[in-house]
Amino acid sequence: MRTFVVISSSPLATERLARRLSRLLREGDILCLVGELGSGKTTFVRGLAQGLRVTQPVQSPTFQLMRVYQGKLPQGQVPVALVHLDWFRLSPQECETLMAEDAIPLPAIYVIEWADRARERWPVECLEISFEWMSNEGRRIAFRVGGKRWERRLNETRRL
């Protein structure tokens, strides 16, 4: 996996970074978010949702396990669901079951918070985004690209 790092100085900068990333998203993409509680994962998803023109307020799916938002892919205004999952309280087997549920609409982009809870269940084709606290609310956001699908977009992703 290739890795590159961005330093975000504020929640607003984290949202802006995610909005830019949303321009590169395609149907079926899976983003695996990893990081401590309060490190910026849900803030990042809010930025993705803004970039995908989601109109509903984005909330953490911790107690619902999954929230689905309707949006549009920036390229061509194609309708797409943003499926926001939370694996914090699940076993690896439960994570796999949740991803396989018929309740997930297609086409969709999947964003999984606490994805490290079931790392062995990750598909090869995913973008891992890890969040780490730094001083004064700054965050280190590391992107690890996995699979050919994301490798092709690596140079575009780096320009964010």
List the helices and strands and how they pair.
Layout: E1 2-8, H1 11-22, E2 30-35, H2 41-51, E3 66-73, E4 78-86, H3 92-100, E5 108-113, E6 126-133, E7 139-146, H4 147-151, H5 154-158
Parallel strand pairs: 2-5, 2-6, 4-5
Antiparallel strand pairs: 1-7, 3-4, 6-7
Task: Provide an overview of this structure.
The protein is α/β, with parallel strands linked by helices and 160 residues long. The relative contact order is 0.25. The chain starts with a strand and ends with a helix. The protein has a single domain (8-122), classed as P-loop containing nucleotide triphosphate hydrolases (Rossmann fold, 3-Layer(aba) Sandwich). Helix 3 (92-100) links the parallel strand 4 and strand 5 (108-113). It has a 7-stranded mixed beta sheet. 26% of the residues lie in helices and 32% in strands. It has helices at 11-22, 41-51, 92-100, 147-151, 154-158, and strands at residues 2-8, 30-35, 66-73, 78-86, 108-113, 126-133, 139-146. Helix 1 (11-22) crosses helix 2 (41-51).
